[in-house]
Amino acid sequence: MTTSTHNFKLSKLMTNLILSGALTSGLAYAAPQDEAVADDQLEVIEVKGFRGSINAALMSKREAVGTRETIIAEDIGKFPDLNVADSLSRVPGISIEEDAGEGRQITIRGLGSRYVKTTINGMESASAGAATDAAGGSNTSRAFDFNVFASELFTQIDINKTVSAELEDGGISGNVNLQTARPFQYDGFKGAYNVNARYSDVDEDVSPRASFMLSNNWDNKFGVLASIAYSDGTVQSEGSSTGRWTVNNPSFVEDGLPVGQGGSNYLTVAPKTLLMPNGNYTNENLDGLYLPRIPRYSLYSKQQKRLGATIAFQYAPTDDLSFNLDVLHASLDNDSEEYHYEVLLRDQKDIVPENIYVDANNTIVAGAYSNSIIRSETRRDSSESTFDQVSFTGNWFINDRFKMNFLIGHGKSDLDIPNMTTFALDSNQSTVAYSFDSNIDPLSLINNPGGQAIGSGELNTNMPSFAFAAGQAPGGNYSKDEIASVMTDPSNYTAGLVRNRSQTIESENKTIRVDFTY
User: Fold this and answer.
1) Looking at 361-493, which runs of residues are DSSP E strands?
2) Residue 240 in contact with residue 298, Cβ under 8 Å?
3) CA dist 471 to 110, 348, 481, Å?
4) Cβ distance 432 to 465 under 8 Å?
5) Which residues contact 182 (CB under 8 A, 6 or more apart)?
6) How far apart are CA 175 and CA 156, in angstroms?
7) CB–CB of 323/314 below 8 Å?
């Protein structure tokens, strides 16, 4: 909550009239008494809530030397979004990287998340969290995982898009500072709470969320604030992906020239994925065609428990000297499950194209293939991310022109993943089809094999359709029910992959900084 106070007094014109003696002597003698009464009856307008937070953010931008964006919560627990990264995505020039539907990391002006310098209460911080492989996996870089923290813990975020001498180096794309609540931000005693829940019809689950804060300010001399936030819920997402795309290049020549220089190489290294000639499909007309590496349907489910707590002390023995002690703890526990039903076209050199359609960019937007591997894959991970930081700061106005700031702090971030278990069943020598063209039915592609001719299509949908004939040779004529029957027949599958891994990431920061401003 931000409070603005406006005091209305006599205008300059009225004051000059009084001082110049233009008014009567009676009024002149009464002026001191009238001014005393006026001082006791000054009209005070307090601007609070959402409007006050916007005014404070605008003032912060005006005072900045460079380009700065500021987000200020109108009150504790009232950030624009439930996720800090999602709030940052509202700022021009910032985009977010998501994991399971939540913002995880941010990029500023197109540069990657590892080029963003993130501080908490002015101290450099590191935060590592776990994620699905589709979202980049566990964070082993200097990028900051914002989803570890509950947004209710913070009252202000500053985004500096330009460099400044007062900022620490390392933020090539920008600097982001997260500010937790402090007692001097509120008058006297204050308590606040926020309790809510959401229901998702996708996973049919209720997710509770709660935050509490208590603060006391003794005349801006000494103050104590404590807050806690907790949330528990399931995040589920469903969709399709390709695991990137590759190019079929049977005419590749070792140490040869690229196609752009008159050679035949679309790749810089020997191809790992090749399509076999079939009927009218030859190496010549298949060369240079792009195909997905792992076209698949996917379902991600993540059970998250997020806990955050802060405690802050402020002490100002004089108007020119103040001290701040901030303690922050955050934890994020994840139990995630992934389910994929996919075609392994990557690293296969004996895939037979049966019926393919190509667009103007030489992309196989729809195709049926035989001698393929269908994989039904599941993965389960358990992870725990913890973050702890203690920082002690002070501000000393030595005189009207000379100021000293200092910071002493210690922070630690740990990520423990005891289990990353993957199990997969493979159906070899299968016939499969996919279609990114909404006008082409993948079932018709399977039912019309033989490599007759390369058709023409277009990439006009982000959600492809599939047909999986598990363990079946080409040449069959299937209905949807028959395709479903062979997909679920256990005799068509064998064990393809069993894997268990673990991972531990530890980060630690220690900071001592003294700044002088003149």
Assistant:
1) 364-397, 403-435, 455-456, 465-469
2) yes
3) 45, 17, 16
4) no
5) 223, 225, 312, 314, 324, 326
6) 14
7) yes
**Amino acid identity at 82:** L
Rounded distance between C-alpha atoms, residue 421 and residue 159, angstroms: 39
Which CA distances in Å does 156 have to 75, 177, 332, 410, 469?
10, 8, 22, 21, 55
pLDDT digits (tens, 9 = 90+) for 14-37: 444 444 444 444 444 444 455 544
Instruction: State pTM to two decimals.
Output: 0.74
**DSSP assigned state of 171:** -
Q: Write the pLDDT tens digit of every residue in 367-376.
A: 999 999 999 9
CA quadruple 146, 151, 155, 159: dihedral sign: positive
**In the structure encoding, which two tokens stand for residue 282, read together?**
């030859």
**Taking the CB of residue 105, how many other CB atoms lie within 10 A of it?**
27
Residues near 513 by beta carbon (within 8 Å), at least 6 away in sequence: 168, 406, 407
Query: Any idea what DSSP says for residue 20?
Result: H
Q: What is the pLDDT of residues 60-73, one digit of tens each?
A: 656 665 677 887 77
Q: Distance from CA of residue 221 to its chain's centroid?
A: 39
Reported residue count of the chain is 518
Strand 94-99 relative to strand 68-72, pairing: unpaired
User: Going by C-beta distance under 8 Å and a sequence separation of 6 or more, which residues neighbour residue 328?
Assistant: 120, 121, 153, 180, 308, 309, 310, 387, 388, 389, 390
